[in-house]
């Protein structure tokens, strides 16, 4: 299922069925999702993880001293399980936020970059195996695009949007590749094969 979702998101980059969105809508929505991810979900993680750690320490200390009844141990284990369930629920919410962020990025990129250019960029990323090499490649690629666009007489505003689009596409690719490497077998003629 994860592979299917990942494939769908990256394929959306070159498909024509995705509704495009304005820059303002994109910035507003991505900021909201980022706020939920960095503030709300982070606080949720800290709260439940800290509580879980405290309970596990308490259980360990009591067992070390042999100062715990089976009922007390059972109760502590239940509390630990509740905190773990809360953390799992938080992780599911985080996965949904990431998926929505990626979908939003792709929708916006579609309005900025032509499908063949998006496909060529993803193809180039696929050719680079090491994460560090991709991080070296990306700034060089961006400088080249900026220079070529300047020579072509493209306005600075449009060039900035294009650079931002490549950055958003790179973020989607990196996140998906970290989760499941080598998701894409081949990119050719503007089509991505999974």
TrEMBL record:
Protein keywords: Signal
Q: Where is the signal peptide?
A: 1-21
Q: Which domain of life is it from?
A: Bacteria
Query: Can you name this protein?
Result: DUF3450 domain-containing protein
What organism does this protein naturally occur in? Bacteroides thetaiotaomicron dnLKV9
